[in-house]
Design brief:
The strands form 3 sheets. The chain has a 3-stranded antiparallel sheet, with no helix packed on it. Strands 4-5-6 form a 3-stranded antiparallel sheet, with no helix packed on it. A 3-stranded antiparallel sheet has the order 7-8-9, with no helix packed on it. It contains 3 helices and 9 strands; from the N terminus they run H-E-E-E-E-E-H-H-E-E-E-E. About 5% of the residues have low confidence. The longest helix is centred in the middle third of the chain and has 8 residues. It is 9% helix and 21% strand.
Length: 222
């Protein structure tokens, strides 16, 4: 009985991004309640960080699980003589700009999933510059043959924005997102639906006027 209990509490690690599935925590955001052992996860469950399937998880000691009350911060580094690529899996939105744009370098079906010898560093840089979440970043090592002027885009690890002119997004506890600064909002078809210097955007999905908040997150207004 003791061995059975230990097996149900076994922590599993994603071999792609390092995410740890802990049965004691489960994956509530994706419908997996706390207390669900790994071998009882639905067949279609995937890593909530990188989208890897269950078959890409390995057992890990329970003592190595994520600290209570915080999320694991993971960064993977890939390098060759011309470029260094950094992957922050916790920031990844799985938009697919990388593997869709340069599959010979970014392939989630291979290990490691980043192959820097699959294309030129210049193409890798241009692809990473399109990453919408900055989960992928790059830098140039000493002695790189890449022109430094090509490595200053939004994917650069050293990329900085001008805080004086940057827009601001404030997350309201149990509420919407307050967006400040000149912005345009487009619908899924690319149609402009809003243009102003401030917006209140829904975060709970209950609004009847998406993507804008209509106050339905407030108890009693559903």
């Amino acid at each position: 009985m003791e061995n059975l209990t230990a097996a149900r509490q076994q922590v599993y690690e994603c071999t792609v991004c390092g995410y740890l599935y802990d049965p004691a925590t489960g994956d509530p955001e994706h419908g997996i309640p706390a207390g669900t052992p790994f071998d009882e996860l639905p067949p279609d469950w995937v890593c909530p960080v990188c989208g890897a399937g269950r078959d890409l998880f390995n057992k890990k000691g329970a003592a190595d699980s994520q600290p209570a009350g915080g999320s694991q911060i993971t960064v993977k580094e890939y390098r060759n003589q011309d470029i260094v690529v950094y992957w922050y899996p916790n920031n990844c939105s799985h938009a697919g700009k990388c593997w869709g744009g340069l599959p010979e370098v970014f392939d989630t079906q291979k290990r490691p999933w980043v192959n820097l010898f699959g294309s030129t560093p210049e193409k890798i840089i241009r692809t990473i510059d399109k990453c919408p979440s900055r989960a992928l970043q790059y830098s140039l090592p000493d002695g790189s043959s890449v022109d430094p002027t090509l490595a200053r885009g939004p994917g650069s690890k050293d990329y900085k924005i001008d805080g004086a002119v940057a827009g601001k997004i404030r997350v309201i506890r149990d509420g919407p997102l307050l967006v400040q600064g000149p912005n345009q909002v487009f619908d899924p078809n690319g149609n402009l639906i809003g243009e102003a210097d401030r917006f209140v955007l829904c975060r709970c999905g209950k609004t009847k006027n998406p993507p804008f908040c209509d106050g339905r997150h407030i108890p009693g207004r559903e």
